[in-house]
Amino acid sequence: MRILFVVPGWPKGRLWGELGFKFPSLSLAALAAVTPDVHQIALWDENIQPREPVAPVDLVAITAMTPQAPRAYAIADSFRLRGIPVVMGGFHASVLPEEALSHVDAVVVGEGEGVWPRLLEELQRGEMARFYTADSLMVMADLPRPRRTLFKGKRYLFTNTLQTTRGCPFDCEFCSVTAFYGRKYRTRPVAGVLAELEELRKKNSFVFFVDDNLVGNRAYALELFAGMKGMGLKWLSHAPIDFGRDPELLRAAGDSGCLGLFVGFESLNQETLAAMGKVTNLAASYGDDARAFRDHGIGILGSFVLGCDGDTPELFPRLLRFCEEARLEAAIFPILTPFPGTKIRDRLEAQGRITSNAWEDYDMGHVTFRPQGMTAQELQEGHDQLNRSFYSFGSIYRRLFKLHRSVQVFGPMNIGFRSAIRNCRKGSP
User: Fold this and answer.
1) Long-range contacts of 243-249 (CB under 8 A, 24+ apart)
2) Rama region for 301: left / alpha / beta (φ>0; ψ in -120 to 50; rest)
3) Minimal CA–CA distance to 294: which of 412, 413, 400, 415?
4) Is residue 81 classed exposed, middle or buried when 0-12, 13-18 and 19+ CB atoms within 10 A define those classes?
């Protein structure tokens, strides 16, 4: 069969659709890795290739997050009108499989590597089921090495992305990770990760670990960082803020080549942090924690959720002041979004506070619920202004003016976010 893997485009005029730096879908490369060689595979990522490929296909496989779902459904409908079967997986289809099934022929729920070969076999026999769900979570030692030849010839920033862990030991109210990967924190054997890194560094010394929490198992992280030391890598990933209170682990990460980490601060209000289940965050120590990252050569891409029940319009100038005083190298300010499958959605639905199920607006840049401490308009305007202020040239200078090894990543990142935010503003009605 000729199989076309599809990544739908993000809506234009939205932050993630306007960002110039694009990364490939590691999940599709993993499916490609377990696709028998008898099949021909190709990738259509609409974010870098707007026009549909002209080559004939026998099966279409789509992955999508919630704001991509409407476009994913339109693509699926188009192929099915031509008699081509369509399969869909990913976060959105996994939590709303019946909705997805109204546009596709089969839905893969949860991790797909274990069921994908069976789906292909049954399709060829004319026996494809409507739903495919693995009997158990993936054993990480069996995780296939992604088939990165799928990305050949595509205009990605770089393709050195990999995954070492799945799941998260925490269960934050707004997060969909545990709904998809479970709370059990699973790790790949370090030897296998290091072997994959040896291959990746032949192409590029920059590496991005897509793990939602790379240091969830301290002993594992120390072993991994020790193995990476001396490889000449420059890497980025995700870690919680309490990582800043572990000098040994920080030093090991810095020595292994860490340049930056995505860190979920989420809120400056300790009561709000407790309510959302962010048990490791201590707002009073944020400044010291951020300084500890920087002292070890590690920059921060901070994340702050806007619109929690304790938030008022005074939040926005306070956040900007904190970010500049803490000299955060970069930050994002997502609006609280009640994604399907999350606890926050269940709570807001029960309270009758969800105001929109237009999935394209679930991009963390639009208000889709009724806030408690301000109006929806105040939240939207505060979000927009905070983004513009944080990525103004003045703020960029105040945060980055002292040379730091992470500026090689965060300098271009700030310019990229600034450009995307300006493009969003131009495209707004």
Assistant:
1) 243/215, 243/289, 243/293, 244/285, 244/288, 244/289, 244/290, 244/291, 244/292, 244/293, 245/285, 245/289, 245/292, 246/218, 247/292, 248/222, 249/215, 249/218, 249/221, 249/222, 249/225
2) beta
3) 400
4) exposed
Whole-number pLDDT of residue 300: 97
| Cβ density class 174-192: b for 16+ within 10 Å, e for less | bbbbbbbbeeebbbbebee
Name the nearest CA neighbour of 11 among 333, 362, 273, 247: 362
Identify whether residues 54 and 108 lie together within a single domain.
yes
User: Is the distance from CB of 283 to CB of 268 less than 8 angstroms?
Assistant: yes
Is residue 276 within 8 A of residue 305, CB to CB? The reply is: yes
Please write the tens of the pLDDT for every residue from 161-173: 999 998 876 666 6
Residue 147 lies in a domain: no
Helices (H), 104-246: 116-124, 177-181, 190-200, 218-228
Number of domains in the chain: 2
Q: Read off the amino acid at residue 292.
A: A
* Alpha-carbon span 418 to 423, nearest angstrom: 9
Q: In a 3-state reduction of DSSP, which class is residue 162?
A: strand
How far apart are the C-alpha atoms of 304 and 268, rounded to whole Å?
8
Domain range for 118 is 2-133
Nearest residue to 200 (alpha-carbon basis) of 240, 164, 226: 164
pLDDT digits (tens, 9 = 90+) for 22-43: 889 999 999 999 999 999 999 9
Which amino acid does the sequence have at 336? L
The CATH number covering residue 31 comes to: 3.40.50.280
CA–CA dist 231, 227 (Å, integer): 8
Positive or negative, the CA dihedral 15, 17, 21, 26 is positive
| 95 and 224 co-located in one domain | no
DSSP element (H, E) containing 262: strand 258-266
Amino acid at 220: Y
The pTM assigned to this predicted structure is 0.93
Same-domain status, 102 and 177:
no
140 within a domain of the structure (yes/no) = no
> Are residues 172 and 294 located together in one domain of the fold?
yes
188, amino acid identity: R
Q: Are residues 128 and 171 in the same domain?
A: no
Residues 116 and 164 in one domain: no
Name residue 360's amino acid. Answer: E
